[in-house]
Amino acid sequence: MRIGLVVNPFAGLGGAVGLKGTDGPGTVTEALRRGAQAKAGARARLALSRLADRVPGAEIILAAGSLGEDWARGLDLDTVITPGSNLTGTARDTKAAVRAMGALDVIVFAGGDGTARDVASVAEGAALLGIPCGVKMHSGVFAVSPQSAGAMMADLTASPDRITWADDAEVMDIDEEALRRGILAPRLYGYARVPVSCTLMQAAKGGPRQDAASALSSAARGIVDGMEDRTLYIIGPGTSAGSVMRAAGHTATPLGVDALLNRKRVAQDADDAALCALAEGRDVRVVLGVTGQQGFLLGRGNQQIGPALIAKAGRDGLIILATEDKLTSLAHPRLLIDTGDPDLDAELTGFVRVATGANREMMMRIASG
Amino acid sequence: MTRIPEFRAAKWNEPVVMEMGRPGARGQLFPTPEDEVNEAVGTDLIPGGMARKDRPELPEITEFEAQRHYLHLSQMTLGMMGISLFGTCTMKYNSKTAEYATLRPELAEVHPYQHPDTLQGVLEIIHDFDSILRSLSGMDQFIFQAGGGADAAYTMTAVARAYWQDRGMLGQRTEMVTSVQAHPCNPATAAAAGFKVVNLPLEENGYPSLDALKAAVSEKTALIMINNPDDMGIYNPEIKEWVKVAKEAGALCFYDHANFNGVMGKLSARELGFDACMFMLHKTFGAPKAGGGPAVGAYGCTDALAPYLPCPVVVKEGDRYILDEDRPKSAGKVREFWGNVPQVVKAYAWSRAMGADGIELASDISVVANNYMDKKLGEIPGLEISNPSLDIHRMEMTRWSLGPLTEETGVSTVDFANRMADYGIDPYWMSHEPWIVAEPFTPEAGELWSKEDIDTWIGVIAQIAEEARTDPDMVKTAPHNQAIAQVRGDAFEDPARWAMTWRAYQRKIRGASKAEDVA
């Protein structure tokens, strides 16, 4: 298992001094001027310490200097340092460091959503594991703490039989310029492969488990079977919602929004205006997935479906798919919404049914995020 | 100072019994009948068409070889005779007195096809035990046909189906509402009976919310199936309101008493408003459990549901006990005859020995024992109780997590359980699915266990937690003192590698290895 680690030394600088993120050198300078302390390196060291404790002498590839090497000094690790280049204090540093490591199985990074996006753009199929350090962490690639990131690195190194892989972790980032103007506009940039550590089930009283993909496709078949004619079905981004497109015999747009009418595709990768035009004079249903860990239903990565469409569908018009595993492992037992319209958010608050398999649903509480 | 048990299991390279023995060896030699006997009854008692032509393929061994063989196997079971705080199973001692009662010929030699006039004694026991369970639940009729808890849950779904069909509403009442931590047999059996399953999540207080139930039930709800407390051990104080909400929607309400131990004698399902409930005689009532085989799920319901019960129902008419088969609205049988009668007799013996006061006291002891165990577990670093922020007592068990220890050491809950077997302590039960806490385990200290037993068990847990830190590889490769090392679970999901009979073994396992030899 080839594991590389890169630190974004500026990640998280803005949070403590009220800058809502640190994208771009101008913000970094401003954050440092306001007295911000860099903490990504120290958090990377916490993760590396856990790895060294668990698997002394573990092999790890590190970026040079403050991008990796500096944080592993004195730890019982077998490090390979890749040559660095002149630092620019921008995303280019992270990307160059990852590229210099060559082919990897897993890229561990210390940073936030911005770093996740940078790393994902050069990952070349490698899995991502985030050491949480950023101001914004909407992506589904982060461990819950630096220590648990270290524990995952230890499992990857010493107990690969504990690892399964998921290919549907959201890589999301907010446009920080817009955020500083008071507009929260997180975008879905793609999906990353992530390691998932799990313990093999005991066989005594348990049975074989249905895998996530077949649970979703069974649920999706049920949804397609129940579709009403002359009603517009808007299909949100993501693997879960996309399974409805596949069940209806179409390909899904992974990061975009599609629409079905009488089970035929009438829109592909559409924007809000196009969807609103299609919805004119019709009943609307919105098919959605749930983001991992955080449990966002609306307002993270699916802003193409605007408040007017959501209001038209109403809470009863939301058709939601997620596996029971995903729902029971959310940080809080809630589905979060952030439509951009506080009144609409309040209206949607309450319980919804989430399809989790064939003839199987889970009630979930919607709360505003 | 707690004494940590030291243990080393016997390890035999024991062949399977079919590969043992020698031609002509016999366990018993029967005398040849005397001529007078042959003359009186003849020598061709078995009709020619029924007599087998070939010799049966049976092992040829002596009686003491057979005993020795099974003694050896019994020494290599990886436990189940030690201290066993095996949660969700409510481990109880199965008394020898009750065992001997069921070996008496009055029970052991009767057959359900006998005329009921010759079965009055056993029918009386079934009838009287029905009365005991009525007084514990408030229900009007119990049956014992179901061969386990899941089978009793299935009985509920079958009864519900018959009930709604009788009203012409089965097409409308299509949904069953349950909770994500109710026993998995509830959603499974409801699905098997054709209902859509609607699950309620646990919320911050450790049990599903009333709001979730209100949102879930409707004119489509056929029934709700819940445990209280569920495996998290937290009693849902809103349960009466729950039943009221479900009833207002017209649904039937089923109380799965799988976790009855903490509330025995303290509450009545009927008083809480339920229409039906079930008890597991093989856990709560001291009868042995046996791998899903001879267990009993006692299913009880109100008079309103009784017409839909599987037949036969044991009823008393005057001084006689009869098997009532004439129930035209019956849901049909869920299993043959009247159930595992020896188990009913053992549960009856347990109940009579305990008495009403004894049952209630046992419940108190189990809750105290469990809370003592929880407190001691909480003192071991790396272990975490579920819902740690809730400062409320759990009842007869709760889910625990090894998550912090696993993160620190890499030792998982499976590794930990394997290591327990090295101390002659039965590995714990981990969790029903879904696993909602990391690296779960679910210990349950029932009324059987002494304080010394619980202290020994805790001592072993603390010792293994320490070993996880000092020598994680040793724990991960456990058991070391057992007859076999780690059981590989993957074979359980591969029918090609199962062999329940010698014939299947020869076909699947030997056939495969012969094919390999040729290749």
Automatic annotation (TrEMBL), chain A:
Keywords: Kinase, Transferase
GO biological process: NADP+ biosynthetic process
Residue stretches spanning the membrane: none
Domain of life of the source: Bacteria
A GO molecular-function descriptor: NAD+ kinase activity
Protein name as annotated: NAD(+)/NADH kinase
Organism for this UniProt entry: Roseobacter insulae
TrEMBL record, chain B:
Species: Roseobacter insulae
GO biological process, one term: glycine decarboxylation via glycine cleavage system
Name listed for the protein in its UniProt record: Aminomethyl-transferring glycine dehydrogenase subunit GcvPB
Domain Aminotransferase class V: 155-287
PANTHER family: GLYCINE DEHYDROGENASE (DECARBOXYLATING), MITOCHONDRIAL, GLYCINE DEHYDROGENASE, DECARBOXYLATING
GO cellular component, one term: glycine cleavage complex
Keywords in alphabetical order: Oxidoreductase, Pyridoxal phosphate
Oxidoreductase among keywords: yes
Keyword Oxidoreductase: yes
Molecular function terms from GO: glycine binding; glycine dehydrogenase (decarboxylating) activity; pyridoxal phosphate binding
EC number of the protein: 1.4.4.2
